[in-house]
Specification:
- There is one protein chain.
- This protein has one domain (15-135).
- α4 (92-101) crosses α5 (106-126).
- It has 6 helices and no strands.
- By secondary structure, it is an all-alpha fold.
- Helix content is 49%, strand content 0%.
- Zinc ion binds next to α4 and α5.
């Protein structure tokens, strides 16, 4: 999906508001999420953005919707685990377990690749790149 808009998006330059910071807890999470939602609330492409977040199982706030809220639209999937039980194949952590044991597992390798790509997108977002770049 590609967004096109002629007005600047409210989140550009505020990427740090859209992701949970390391060690962030309780009221700090709420305050940051509220600030992000306020930006999304006046965004012209909020509906498309929200949908993209759901389709890509993304981290962070998309179209005013956080990870927990998105989860309700993907009842059988978690962000990285695909709804798996702990220890089941198909997650970055099981990939690392395979690595330690010298095992080969395509499913886990793919899950890890997806995870690394997602992390890279987040990192680029934090570095001030437009959310459009994430969506592109
Ligand atoms: S995160 Fe999405 S909805 Fe929110 S301001 Fe940015 S582009 Fe708009
Ligand atoms: Zn595996």
């Amino acid at each position: 999906m590609k967004f096109s808009t002629t007005v600047p998006l409210p989140c550009v330059g505020h990427a740090e508001l859209f992701f949970t910071a390391d060690g962030e807890r309780g009221p700090a999470v709420q305050a940051r999420a509220e600030a992000a939602r306020a930006l999304c609330a006046r965004c012209p492409i909020a509906a498309e953005c929200r949908q993209l977040g759901r389709e890509t199982y993304s981290l962070g706030m998309w179209g005013g919707e956080d990870e927990d809220q998105r989860q309700q639209h993907q009842p059988r999937r978690s962000n990285y685990g695909g709804g798996r039980r702990p220890g089941e194949c198909g997650t970055p952590s099981t990939y690392k377990r395979h690595l330690k044991r010298g095992e080969h597992c395509d499913e886990c390798r793919q899950a890890n690749t997806d995870y690394v790509r997602q992390k890279d997108r987040e990192r680029r977002a934090r570095n001030g790149t437009s959310r459009l770049a994430i969506a592109a």
